[in-house]
């Protein structure tokens, strides 16, 4: 994968397959400590300790449609190549949290990519699931929470084109405001 947002998409799809009703995705950038942290948490079915220890093996997958699972191993490798760390915490019946840290300015760090489009894709394809996307830069942050959008929309489906366009613009505008022109992409 060429962009971290595609890894986020893949991991979040694992959460969807795990039966999650709420998926929380956080991108945190801390220039002072030179860290980029991506966290994906869900309330899905969770994994056993044995599954957690095997999930970083590319030849382990719970899917029946293919024999390999590269999403988690690639994210782990991408993180560690930049001096970062990778962890998975999971418990059966409680969900899973995947966390990857990256050297923010490390030459080998892949670009984040279009995380707004990734979130929109997840919402559009899974309108029955709630997503919370949070972006943190230094001490500023914002969240896009589909539970709040549902309240305002009063029954308009989350996957309608107008709503998806709004969510994408909401993420782009709030990210730009937080970055305050520092750069276009992290």
Automatic annotation (TrEMBL):
Keywords: ATP-binding, Kinase, Nucleotide-binding, Transferase, Two-component regulatory system. Residues 1-106 form the Histidine kinase domain. InterPro entries: HATPase_C_sf, HATPase_dom, His_kinase_dom, Sig_transdc_His_kin-like_C. It catalyses: ATP + protein L-histidine = ADP + protein N-phospho-L-histidine. Its EC number is 2.7.13.3. GO terms for molecular function: ATP binding; protein histidine kinase activity. This is histidine kinase.
